[in-house]
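User: Batch of two.

Assistant: Item 1 of 2:
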Amino acid sequence: MAKCRGYCMTATRNSCLDRMRKKKLLSVQESKALHISSTDKDPYEHMMNKEILTQIRKCVDALPENQQQVIHLREIEGFSYNEIAALLDMSLEQVKTNLFRGRNAIKKSIIKEEGLWNKR
């Protein structure tokens, strides 16, 4: 019974990782976010939102693989910390640490980019 459970967990983990690699961290939600028409957004806001989304994608792509996987599973797929730990065969603390570091790296990059935009 324990061997069967271990096999199923490994197969599920590998399947998720393969799926993530194929998608290259591009979610359906992200692609739809830019195409939602709204009467209260002007072209400038639309362009800025697109730039921010592009910057976030660049930041995520620059992260180490563990951080990319954790951020994708948490922020895009909506998995809980415990589910991510089981899927990626990590401790709960490792999941939290990778998520914290990844989010901070993205935040710092966006703040830096925003500073460059404001100087122009």
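Item 2 of 2:
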Amino acid sequence: MDKLIHSFLRWLEVEKGYSEHTVSGYGRDLSGFTATLPKDIHPEEIEALHVRRFVVSLHGQNSAATVGRKLSALRTFFKFLLRKHVIANDPVAGIGGPKVGKYLPTFLTVDEVFSLLEAPCKKNRFMLRDSAILELLYSTGIRVAELVSVNMESLDFESEMLRVRGKGNKERLVPVGRVALEAIRGWFPLREQLIADRARRGHKVEKKALLLNSRGSRLTTRSVERMVKAYGEQAGLPQSVTPHALRHSFATHLLEMGADLRSVQELLGHASLSTTQRYTHLTLDHLTEVYDKAHPHAK
């Protein structure tokens, strides 16, 4: 079974172009399932009963979304085995996932975003880098995984565009605001110093990455998440701030200012318009609030 899972994960990475993070998630979900199976069971012997028992064991300890995700991983895996003629019947076929409620993204107001962007202070050596990160997240709406994978060559200062490699290894071009570009330029002197320091220590130099940590290597998603959360607390924001909250804020503020849904879909890199339509619930709330305040006969 382990060899089949390894082959499946390799297929996701090479053929489907899934990110390392996504492939690791599939691997964890499949490992969790196989741990519940009898030892040395052949894939052909796995039945719907095994899958149902696994799903039942997840309830109470996981959210409906998590259970649905794990079941989706199993469904994809067994379809892969069917195509490879390893099994003749799909044990997941006919097993429905839990009903997941509609998710409304958390976002910041414009004033809250500005407070967050102003949080980095001169006492912090990495103030300029952190400012560049916050400005770039809000200016482009890119995912945190996309942010840390940005290379120097991906950014065109002349055209003010950023080439982003998103989910499914798909590329898209995203405009970058001038404030964000200036913040990035401000970070370059320290970036060069970190690269030089790393070279002096005899380590392999990271010249491609736009964003580096204190050791001169590429920044990780976890580091960015911790940094954004810390600045949110420093700014006194009432909720825990994540890079994804800035992505949601980017989309919501664009729609509030009149951007059309299709354009926002392209900027976010959503494969389906229905994913972007989540934000219309938020903008409708905003429009209703404006209407109630402004229209003479609203009350």
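The chain has 13 helices and three strands.
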